[in-house]
Amino acid sequence: MMVSMQRSLTVLGASAVIVLVSMGIRQSFGLLLSPVAVDLGTGRETYSLAIAIQNLVFGLPIAGLISDQIGARRVAFLGGLIYAAGLYLLGVAESSGMLFASLGLLLGVALSCTSYVVILGAVAQVAPPNRRTSVFGLITAAGSFGMFLVVPFVQALIIRQGWRDAVTTLAVVAIGIALLALLLPGRRHDMRTTAGAASDENAMADVLRSARSNRNYWLLNIGFFVCGFHVAFIATHFPAYLADNGLPTMEAATALSMIGLFNIFGSTTFGYLGDRYRKKYLLAGLYFGRAIVITLFLLVPVTRVSSLLFGAAIGYLWLATVPLTSGMVAQIFGARYLATLYGI
Fold first, then answer.
1. What is the number of other CB atoms lying within 10 angstroms of the CB of residue 228?
2. How far apart are CA 119 and CA 12, in angstroms?
3. pLDDT tens digits, residue range 239-266?
4. Is 185 left (phi over 0), alpha (psi -120 to 50) or beta?
5. The model's pTM
6. Fewer CB within 10 A of the terminal residue: the chain, N end or C end?
7. How many angstroms separate the first and last alpha carbons of the chain?
8. What's the Cα-to-Cα distance from 44 to each of 97, 211, 242, 245, rounded to whole Å?
9. Residue 334 falls in which region: left (phi positive, over 0), alpha (psi -120 to 50) or beta
């Protein structure tokens, strides 16, 4: 029993740090938009297209599917190495094609292997079912804490060293993801999954067939489409937008880091509430709250105070969708193929 608990804590600790580093670096990419566009002589649309490619690759459910077959340890280990390689190549990029290959393709693959889809699938193996959403909330909060820590760190590196050396430094940091991945569970054994109320063991094809015909699963997909648009768009363009309105780059980075700080509270709060109240109502309220916050920010003048308040407000709602959505998927279909179903 003691060994099992220690093992669980080790997995949770390694998972939290992996997500902290992976998502912290990812959320700092918006700081690179202006310096990369100037250095490479391209418009912002070129950098934005690279980020779009990254998000499309990031969103492919392949990493989750592979993780359910061979285990999170191998997938996250390889993802950490690809993360480091992608960042290094980004740091030496001299053309749009190189930008698309590194920032877009390689880092998209790396993120799919080292962020919530694969990591929460690993956590689901050791988290008690009655506390699963709360634990998912804590892991999500770790990713938000990474944003709070890494974004100001990256901005300071850019100011002192330039964006290329800053990215190279991040490549070295990303190697730590591969090392921590060795502490994650390997291939799953003797885990059962349920589709709806059924208690018999299902193969992945049966679970996917069940998900395809499940109305609630489709609604979750639509909601996450909106969530991904919010997160990717704001993280990419928020710092440059603030700079365009006269705010210093460090203040823009601080406003972005506020999103990560306040999402620590949001993720843990909604994770806690998700184990006690109907997750669908919490998700509906969360998305409605985002609409109000974004609308208000567009209506008021852009100042240091308004940017910090927006960062705090949208941050509270930022990735609080993750524990609720992943918790609902696990609740409906079980934990066995969570990485695949959540990855989709």
1. 14
2. 9
3. 889 988 999 888 888 898 899 889 888 8
4. beta
5. 0.79
6. N
7. 35
8. 15, 38, 15, 16
9. left
